[in-house]
Write a structure and sequence with these properties.
This protein is α/β, with parallel strands linked by helices and 569 residues long. The protein is built from 29 helices and 10 strands. Helices cover 55% and strands 9% of the residues. A 5-stranded parallel sheet has the order 2-3-4-1-5, with helices on one face. The chain has a 3-stranded mixed sheet with strand order 8-9-10. The longest helix is centred in the middle third of the chain and has 18 residues.
């Protein structure tokens, strides 16, 4: 006798043997007991969960010669239906018989009374494959078949079945079979087959089956053929193409250490083992999911993981910020949708991993503001750290703007020879160099042409470290030179940018001194013409926005400074 595969050998022969679909079998059993059988049934659900099997059991229950409704599996009709050779139960493949001509033949056949049974039953598998014309031809017969006619439709894609068909049937949705049900059923079969298997292998088999009992039994056939009477996890890994957990742990370890070489090596080794990029991406996403759940007390208990693996996940999860794991999971989920359509899926996977290496750590806005507040309350004028991008604004930044403006108005009234000496006190407080200033009349004088010739280079160097400041300097030019004091005029820019220049004054001075190799003091002004034009054109707007939040809100100013931003109006 030819070998019979496990999925056929262990096909359920009673409603009680159907695994994981109690809501369907219980309803059908009660319908037979109360004689409330519908003229048509529609079974929908994933592959391998028992739709066609249940359709055959319904046929037995309808046509059993001994006990209709509670079939015996021993009469001629029951045995013929089990073997698929009963003349009154016709199984039709919707993919092969999808046209209107086949449906017309079906309508003619159902008019004839059954030969040896009470009902003539038509089982149409994969019914969603029928054409629109075939569905329309089936409508009338499906709604009012002859008294001896019954229809059982099965599909894995209910979305393609017209609503007019669904409304004429009793619909039953078959669920994916749980891993625990698969594990129990596989254990029962292996006991009967005298085959031993370890717990890790059967859990991996259930996970690989993804809710399909037929897939689980097909995989089990492969394992028995490879391993014989004893199935081990190492052999299961080879047969099912599983990716070891160590691979994923090593990838996350390399990500944490920013070790690009190790990640590229791990992906290369995985590819050499014949594992697809899609499987690697799915497994990596599940690994990140497990790390996230490990950070939640008791969350991993609902998953089929051994104790050692759970402890390992809990230990590694402590090294990660949950928000970083969520960002990685989001990137992986987006990539899963693309990787199956990619021409070079492993290149896409490698680029994604290298992208993750460049990902910065997540910082919450709340914690960032907490770090900024102490600095904002210091009220000092120390600008020694201005060159660093993350330095916040001081608390009195607005007051300093107004004081600076008042000083400018006073200085405009002074003669040029007094202008150089005026800022001396402010320079001492900002630069912290009281005794380093040289007399303007000394040999260390600066010419206007000298500074203007290198201003473009200065702007370029500042832009390299502070792009937003460099953009403002593109609209500035050195207008006057008085000894060491350079007057820089800003045109066509809002007043807010003047404040940014003041806050980064030390950075700009350092770059100017580096370019001309002389000590300088910068003074920033807004061009009078540009200011008057701006004032005239936006007079009404400034009156309405007198208390504009970006100029008053210290927290917003701090955030803009930390992220090197600017307000776009």
């Amino acid at each position: 006798m030819a070998y019979q595969v496990l999925s056929l050998k262990w096909r359920p022969q009673t409603f009680k043997e159907v695994v994981g679909q109690e809501h369907v079998t219980h309803t059908l059993t009660n319908a037979f007991k109360k004689d409330r059988v519908a003229q048509a049934y529609l079974f929908t659900g994933p592959r391998g969960v028992g739709k066609t099997t249940t359709a055959r059991l319904v046929s037995k229950a309808l046509n059993c010669l001994k006990t209709p409704g509670d079939f015996c599996n021993s009469c001629s009709n029951c045995m013929e239906i089990t073997d698929g050779r009963n003349m009154d139960v016709l199984e039709i493949d919707g993919a092969s018989n999808r046209g209107i001509d086949e449906i017309r033949n079906l309508r003619e056949m159902i008019q004839y009374t059954p030969m040896n049974a009470q009902y003539k039953i038509f089982i149409i598998d994969e019914v969603h494959m029928l054409t629109t014309q075939a569905f329309n031809a089936l409508l009338r017969t499906l709604e009012e078949p002859p008294k001896h006619g019954k229809f059982i439709l099965a599909t894995t894609d209910i979305q393609k079945v017209p609503a007019t068909i669904i409304s004429r049937c009793q619909r039953f949705d078959f669920n994916r079979i749980t891993s625990s049900n698969i594990i129990d059923h596989v254990g029962t079969i292996l006991d009967a087959e005298n085959v031993s298997i370890d717990d890790e292998s059967v859990k991996a088999l259930a996970a690989k089956a993804d809710g399909s009992m037929r897939d689980a039994l097909s995989i089990l056939d492969q394992l028995i053929a490879y391993c014989g009477d004893k199935i081990t996890f190492d052999d299961s890994t080879v047969v099912m193409g599983l990716i070891p957990h160590d691979t994923f742990f090593n990838v996350t370890k390399a990500l944490k250490a920013k070790d690009a070489k190790s990640i590229v090596q791990l992906l290369h080794e995985t590819r050499m083992l014949g594992i697809s990029a899609g499987e690697m991406a799915i497994g990596f996403n599940k690994h990140i999911r497990n790390l996230l759940l490990a950070s939640v007390p008791g969350a991993l208990e609902i998953y089929d993981l051994n104790l050692e693996l759970k402890e390992r996940y809990e230990l590694v999860s402590k090294e990660w910020d949950r928000r970083n794991l969520l960002r990685i999971a989001g990137i992986l989920t987006d990539m899963e949708a693309k990787i199956h359509r990619a021409a070079q899926p492993y290149i896409l996977l490698e680029m994604m991993c290298l992208k993750l290496l460049e990902m910065d750590s997540t910082v919450s806005l709340e914690n960032l503001l907490k770090q900024l507040k102490p600095s904002s309350q210091s009220g000092g004028n120390d600008t020694s750290a201005v060159s660093q991008p993350s330095v916040p604004y001081e608390k009195d930044s607005q007051e300093s703007v107004f004081v600076h403006k008042a000083q400018e108005e006073t200085e405009d009234k002074k003669p040029p020879e007094e202008l150089a000496a005026a800022p001396e006190e402010g320079v001492k407080s900002q630069k912290g160099e009281v005794g380093n200033e040289s007399d303007p009349e000394s040999g260390n004088s600066i010419s206007l042409e000298e500074v203007q010739s290198v201003w473009g280079e200065i702007t370029k160097e500042v832009s390299a470290s502070r792009p937003s400041i460099g953009t403002i300097l593109d609209h500035c030019m050195v207008n006057k030179v008085h000894g060491k004091v350079l007057e820089v005029v800003m045109t066509g820019q809002p007043k807010f940018n003047l404040n940014l220049l003041e806050k980064n004054k030390n950075l700009i001075e350092v770059q100017v001194e580096k370019s001309i190799e002389k000590s300088v003091i910068l003074r920033f002004k807004i061009d009078e013409k540009g200011e008057s034009i701006s004032t005239d054109s936006t007079k009404n707007t400034e009156e309405q926005n007198k208390n504009n939040a970006p100029q008053k809100d210290q927290t917003l100013l701090q955030i803009i400074e930390r992220f090197d931003g600017e307000i776009i109006t």
